[in-house]
Design brief:
Hypothetical Protein Tm841, Chain: A,domain 3; six-stranded mixed β-sheet; Rossmann fold; about 25% strand; alpha/beta
């Protein structure tokens, strides 16, 4: 099972180093719509320009999936394998990937593959990919890998700390009035994944010990952390991400903590200065 490749969409914050480590590829790009402009979320996207466009945009923003042929070609090129997508309740990418896999199976006899709905996004997809590789190395049967990863996804938690909610307003996920109130009062919303959807978890006030307050979300769930992985993604906020990493080392006993930068769609979700964690 270890030789099977992992294919992800572009909301997964895989670095080139992680791609090599996990035998994975972040190869299926979203199309990002910012006002009247459309960007491709791949290696050609210049993040500084994209962030500036998002800030300047006064219209709507959103994303769109590529055709299933993109997934079909990726599965055929990889000789099968595992796919990890953003939550099916946030995008049609999961269904698109499943259709692409079936098209690949029709074209290549004996090809095996599975599409995982991460029920998350951003670093939640990275953590799912890490678990796919971990179980691929420890299990000899394809079905056992699928079963263990699916069970992990049900347990995984993802939290998003927002410094800026303007993208949520532009996406229509938050009213303009509520967005203005949040900004004026200095409230930092904490969102969580809940059965694949984004739900409000808490509202933090002030600027002191934000990292510690954010990490209380982990303590509240009282899940085992010893030896487990924690993945942190940030959108243009390395200082806070590093504070969260250092505080997590103090408060918990994670085996590995990764700090990553968000790409295009991840930045659209987490907004400027946002920090996301999954464990």
């Amino acid at each position: 099972m270890d030789e099977l490749r992992i294919i992800t969409d572009s909301c997964c914050d895989l670095t080139p180093e992680l791609e090599r480590e996990l035998n994975a590829e972040r190869s299926i790009p979203f199309f990002l719509n910012v006002g009247s402009e459309t960007f491709v979320d791949d290696e050609t996207l210049v993040m500084s320009d994209f962030m500036a466009k998002m800030k300047a945009c006064t219209g709507k923003m959103g994303s769109a999936c590529p055709s299933p042929e993109k997934w079909k070609d990726a599965f055929i090129r990889a000789g099968g394998g595992f796919a990890v997508t953003i939550s099916s309740k946030l995008s049609a990418m999961y269904q698109t990937a499943k259709l692409g896999l079936e098209m690949a199976k029709d074209e290549v006899s004996g090809l095996i593959g599975h599409v995982f709905d991460s029920k998350s996004a951003v670093c939640g997809e990275v953590l799912t990919a890490m678990k796919v590789r971990q179980f691929s190395r420890s299990e000899s049967r394809f079905e056992d890998v699928v079963h263990k990863v699916e069970n992990f996804i049900e347990e995984m938690k993802t939290f998003i700390l927002l410094e800026d909610v303007s993208n949520l307003v532009k996406n229509g996920r938050m009213s303009r009035i509520k967005g203005t109130i949040v900004q004026v009062l200095g409230i930092k919303p904490v969102l969580q994944n809940k059965d694949g959807e984004i739900d409000t978890y808490a509202r933090l006030r002030g600027s002191s010990n934000i990292a510690g307050k954010f990490l209380e979300s982990i303590a509240q769930y009282k899940r085992k952390t010893k030896g487990q992985d924690l993945v942190i993604s940030h959108c243009n906020n390395p200082t806070l991400a590093e504070e969260v990493r250092a505080k997590a080392q103090e408060m918990f006993d994670f085996g590995r903590i990764l700090v990553l930068e968000t790409y295009g769609l991840s930045s659209l979700y987490s907004c400027d200065k946002g920090v996301v964690l999954s464990y």
